[in-house]
Amino acid sequence: MGISGDWDQRITRRTLLKTGGSFAAGITLAGIASGPAFGFGYRKELDRIAIDISLTFLLANDTEVSDGVTMSIPKLGLLWNQDPIADSSAYYGIAVSYGFAAVSADGMLYGGSGLEGHLIGGYEMFRSSTIRGFIQMDVTLPFYKSNSEFSGTDTRWPVSAALSLGLGWGKSNVVRVINE
Questions:
Q1: What is the span of the domain harbouring residue 43?
Q2: How far apart are CA 145 and CA 137, in angstroms?
Q3: Which DSSP category does 174 fall into?
Q4: Under a CB-based contact definition with an 8 Å cutoff, are residues 132 and 166 in contact?
């Protein structure tokens, strides 16, 4: 009688839904705007590595000095799970996306689009369940600057960050053991 692991059970797929707060920095020299952030995505895990495909939307609208909106579609990320077998695990990674930014600052309207890099860090809980909870921090670093609508020489770098709480659902990461 031997014992073997059914390794196909270690491959998990998650549909993710997240919402949280955002901070848009670098929009103005005067301050930082904040507001809601939303996201939807799909994550495929294989042991320590996960591939994350998502759409994110950030709305920074809490100040009189500055407002802004950014969108990343699609965001393709590579994540590393600190402890893939544990019920709770930290993860971190990088992503790339095509993004749009529109910012109103100091009475001027700035807009731009292009390639964006993302730094991701988070903590996932209830990994042995079919429904997981997570908290995640995303920092977006655009490889472009937003130009002024009225003068092409005035530019801003629309860096943003979002702290999100989310849920994921799909298969659990439990390894099934078969006795033969």
A1: 3-179
A2: 22
A3: P
A4: no
Cα→Cα distances 13→31, 50, 70, 105, 140, Å: 40, 9, 27, 41, 25
Count of domains for the chain: 1
- Both tokens assigned to 169: 């659902």
For 93-125, how does the pLDDT look when each residue is reduced to its tens digit (9 = 90+)?
A: 999 999 988 877 767 777 888 999 999 999 999
CATH of the domain at 15: 2.40.160.20
Sequence-separated (6 or more) residues with CB below 8 Å from residue 132: 14, 124, 125, 126, 167, 168, 169
Identify whether the C-beta of residue 70 lies closer than 8 Å to the C-beta of residue 97.
Answer: no
Beta-strand (E) ranges in the chain? Answer: 3-6, 11-25, 33-46, 49-60, 66-81, 89-105, 108-125, 131-142, 146-148, 155-156, 159-170, 176-179
Q: Are 93 and 59 in contact (CB under 8 A)?
A: no
Report yes or no on whether pTM surpasses 0.70: yes
